[in-house]
Amino acid sequence: MGSLQTENPEFAAAVATNTDGFATNPLDHEEFRRQGHMVVDYIADYYRDVHKYPVRSQVEPGYLRRRLPDAAPNGPEPIEVILGDITHDILPGITHWQSPNYYAYFPSSGSTAGFLGEMLSTGLNVVGFNWMSSPPPPSSRPSLPEAFLFSGGGGGVLQGTTCEGLLCTLTAARDRVLKKIGREHIGKLVVYGSDQTHCALQKAAQIAGIHPENFRAVGTTRKDAFALNPASLRAAVAADVARGLVPLFLCATVGTTSSTAVDPVAGLCEVAKENNMWVHVDAAYAGGACILPEVRHVIDGVENADSFSFNAHKWFFTNLDCCCMWVKDPAALVAALSTNPEYLRNKATESKQVVDYKDWQIALSRRFRALKLWMVLRSYGVSNLRNFLRSHVAMAKHFESLVTADERFEVVVPRTFAMVCFRLLPPAQAGRETANELNRRLLEAVNSSGKAYMTHAVVGGVYMIRFAVGATLTAEHHVVESWRVIQEHASEILAAWS
Amino acid sequence: MGSLQTENPEFAAAVATNTDGFATNPLDHEEFRRQGHMVVDYIADYYRDVHKYPVRSQVEPGYLRRRLPDAAPNGPEPIEVILGDITHDILPGITHWQSPNYYAYFPSSGSTAGFLGEMLSTGLNVVGFNWMSSPPPPSSRPSLPEAFLFSGGGGGVLQGTTCEGLLCTLTAARDRVLKKIGREHIGKLVVYGSDQTHCALQKAAQIAGIHPENFRAVGTTRKDAFALNPASLRAAVAADVARGLVPLFLCATVGTTSSTAVDPVAGLCEVAKENNMWVHVDAAYAGGACILPEVRHVIDGVENADSFSFNAHKWFFTNLDCCCMWVKDPAALVAALSTNPEYLRNKATESKQVVDYKDWQIALSRRFRALKLWMVLRSYGVSNLRNFLRSHVAMAKHFESLVTADERFEVVVPRTFAMVCFRLLPPAQAGRETANELNRRLLEAVNSSGKAYMTHAVVGGVYMIRFAVGATLTAEHHVVESWRVIQEHASEILAAWS
Lengths: 498, 498
Fold this sequence. Notes:
- The structure is a homodimer.
- By secondary structure, the first copy, chain A, is of the alpha/beta class.
- Chain A is 41% helix and 12% strand.
- The first copy, chain A, has 3 domains: 23-93, dopa decarboxylase, N-terminal domain (Up-down Bundle), CATH 1.20.1340.10; 127-367, Aspartate Aminotransferase, domain 2, CATH 3.40.640.10; 382-497, Aspartate Aminotransferase, domain 1, CATH 3.90.1150.10.
- In chain A, strand 8 and strand 9 form a beta hairpin.
- Chain A starts with 8 loop residues before the first helix and ends with a helix.
- The model of chain A is unreliable at 1-22 and 132-140 (pLDDT under 50).
- Chains A and B meet through helix 1, helix 2, helix 4, helix 5 and helix 6 of A and helix 1, helix 2, helix 4, helix 5 and helix 6 of B.
- Chains A, B: InterPro entries: Aromatic_deC, PyrdxlP-dep_de-COase, PyrdxlP-dep_Trfase, PyrdxlP-dep_Trfase_major, PyrdxlP-dep_Trfase_small, Pyridoxal-P_BS.
C-alpha cells in the first residue's frame, strides 16, 4: 500500500479508481495507535462489566443472520460504529466464558498476560513454520522426565489444541508400526481409550484412517471412579490380539471431561508396553495444575508414556489456543509429518541445528504461541500461578461443602481438582430416571436465568451437573451466590414435582 | 481468583502460602487497561520503526537459548521488564514479516482491523465449538456459485490454515468413497496434484492414511507456465485405473507457491468428474484477489469443483490465521469428522437449525476468527480492499518493468498477480548451472544485507528469485529501492565471477 505520490501511471490509475476516498495505509502506525487504545478500553470495560451479562447466550438460532447485512460494505466504516455493532449485535449472542459465573465445560482462563502475548504475536504477525521465527518452547513444565525434553532426546511443541496433538502422535505411532508390518495392514490397527476419553481421540482415529470398528472405548465403572482399569485394558487388548488385530495406541486421560477422573498412568503404561503400544497422556484440563507439588502425583508413571499434553488455554491463564505437548521420539513425528519442498530449503534447516516445527504439527504455518505462554509465566511467576490454581481448588472445595450440607443433593463422584459433580437426589420412592429428569430441569432453569452457566455429564447412567471453577474472575462470593441460585431453582422444581 | 477477604479457611490458607505478595486478579480490568495501552504503543512504535530492522533474522541457531533462563521465574516480573526483553531478545531473532521490504514466501498482510478483530476475539476468549458462539461466516466472498453457500446446500467455514482445510476435505472424500467400495480398499485410493502443488496436499494425504505410493505429483512444463495440463492428469488417472487403483481427490491450485501458476480449473474438473473424484481448488494466495473483477476469471469453472479455499491471512489483510473454505457437500465433512458425546448435547444442536463447526474441522475448540475477517471487511470496505490489492499488483508490474529494462536479468515466468519471478541471466558461454549458482549468491547477498527479504523457487531446473509484493506497509519507493539493492549486489557478484 503506497502513498499518493507516485510517478507510476499504473499505480496512480489503481489509486484513482477509488471514488470513496482512499483510506490511509491499513497499518498506519498512528491510526493503529488510536484504534488500538479504543479497543483496549473496550475490552477493559467488558471485563469490568462482564458479571452483568447473562452468562449463557440467551439468543435463538438465526438471530445474527437477521441482524447482519447480506454483503460486506463497499466503503469503509469507522471503528466507533463497528464497536457499537459488536456491543449490540455480537455480545448478546455469545456465551461469556470470562464471566465470573461461568462454570461450564472446562474454563478458558484468560489473563492480561495471555492477552498481551497474543497481541504481540498478532502484531508481529510472523508465520513461523521453520526455525527462523520460533524460539525454543518454554521451559517451565509440570516437572516432566528428562526423556521428554530436548536435552534427553525428546522435545516439546505448542499445538493449537489437544485434538491436533492427538492426531499428530497417532499418525506418528501409526506410521512407525506400519513401517514394520506393512502398509497393507492399516485395517488391523486398534486404538484404545475408555468410555470417558474425550471424543478428540475417536476423531483423530477417524481422520488417521483407523478402521471405525477398531476404536475401543473400554468400559469404566463407578467403583473405579470412572478411571480406566488396567485389567480392563489388558482384557480388551488380549481379545483383539487373539483376533489377529494389532494394538497401536492408548490415550490415558488425567482429568476426564465428564468427571475429572484420573486414569492410572503407571498401570496402563505397563499393559501398553507388553503390547508395544504408543501411550499418550492427555492432561488437557489437569496438566497445568501439575505445577502444584500436591497434585503432581496424578501423572506419576508418565515417564513410561510416549507423549504428554495439556492445554494452557484451559486452566493455565493462557488465552485460546495453546496446547503444550511433549514427545519422547520426535523422529517418529517428523517421519510421519514432514515434506521438504524446494521453496522451504534453507541453510539453518540443513545445518540440523534447529527444530522446524512444521514437521511436528498438522499445518505448515504456525502462530507465535510461545509468546503468550512466556508472558504468562513471567508476568505471574510460578509462585503466583500456584496460588491462583490453589484458590480455584479452594473455591471448589467450598462449593463441595455447600452441596454436602444440603441433604437434597449429593456429590456424585469424588472431587479431585476444581470441579464438583453434583446432583439433586431422587425424591422418596422415585428412581434414577426421575432424578435425571429433575437435574435436567434444574440445569436448564439455572442456565436460562443467566446468573450462572454449568453443563452436564452422564456417568454410569447418572445425569449430573458439573460445576467447574476456574474462570479467572471467579471469586468466592460468586461461588456462594451461584449456589444460592441453584438452591432456589431446586426448591421451585421440587415443589412443582411433588 | 478471589479477593483477599474470605471466611473460608482453606481459601485463606491457599492465599497465605504466597510469600512473594499476592498479585491482583490476572484479569483485573484496570491493570488490563494500563498494560494494554502500553502494548498498543509498543506495537504502534514497532510499525513506525519496522523498516529499520534487518528484514530477515540475522541470528544464528541457538542464540535465544543462550539468552533465556532455563526455568520460569518464581515471582512476578513487571510488564516494563518483559517488553524490554522482547526488544532485546526476541525482536533480533525474528524475521519481520510486516516490514515494507518483505517480499519472501507469500506476504502475511496484517492490518489494524485484522489486529483489532484478533484482540476482540482473544479478549472475549470464547471457545466456539458449537453454534452458541459462532456467527455465520462472513458473506463477502469472491463471487462463488450458489452451490457453495448455505442457501444452496453448501456452506462455508473458517479454518486456521489451508493444510487443515485440505485434510478435512480429503478425509471427507475418502470416507465418502470407502463407504461405497469398502474400508478394506483404503490402500487403493489415489490423490492427485501437480509437481507445483503445495506440500500441504502430500502432508494431508500422509495423515489421512493414503498409501504413500498413491500420491501423484503430475509433471508440469514451462510451455504450460507450470500449470497442470488436463491431458496430463487424464493420462495419470487412466494409468492408475488400469492398475486397479481408485482415483479419489484432485487439488487444483490457483496461484502456486513457486510461481503463482494457475491450474485450469474448468478443464481439470472435467477429468475429475469423469472419474468421480473430489476436486479442491486451493487459492490460498490468489483467492482474496478474486474480489477484483479483472482477476475473478482465474477461478472460472469453480462451480464444478467440490470445495474451495483461500487464506485471508495471506493477501487479504487479516492477521494469521484465517483460511476461508467452502464446500458443496457439508454432510460429507460432518460424516467424516463428527463425534457426538453426551457432554456436548444441547437443544440448539438437536433442533438442526444451527451449524456446529466442530464437525467441519480437525479440532473441537475454535477461536472466534470470524471477528477479524468481519472487522477487515467493515473497516476498509470492498472498494478500498480492491484498491489495496490493485496497488500491490501495480507495484509488482512496476518491478517487472524495472527487471525487464535491465538486460542482465529476465522475468522467468509470466506475472499473473503481485509476484515477479526473475533471475540473473547466465553470462556469455555459461550454462544454466552457472546461472543458478549466481542467483543463489545474489539472493543470499540481498537477504544478508537485511535491506530486503526474498525467497527462491526452482521450476523446470531454473533457480529463480521470487519477489512477492503484498506486505501491507510496502510502498512504491520501497520496491524501487529494493530493486536498486538487488542491482548493486548483482553487479558485485558478476564482477567477482568474471
